[in-house]
Amino acid sequence: MARFEESEWAEGKHARDFVQNADIYILERKRLLRLVQSFYRNFQRDRLQRPTRLLDLGCGNGEVTMALLEVDDEIEAQLVDGSSEMLKIAQERLKSYKKLNYIHTTFQDLIKEDILTTDFDFVISSLAIHHLHTEEKKALFNSIHHQLAEGGFFLNIDVIKAPAGDLEDWYRMLWKEWIAENEALLKPEKSFQYLPDQYKNNPDNHPDTLEKQLNILRSAGFKQVDCYYKYGIFSIYGGRK
Ligand SMILES: C[S@@+](CC[C@H](N)C(=O)[O-])C[C@H]1O[C@@H](n2cnc3c(N)ncnc32)[C@H](O)[C@@H]1O
Question: Domain range holding 149?
Answer without folding.
Answer: 4-164+215-225
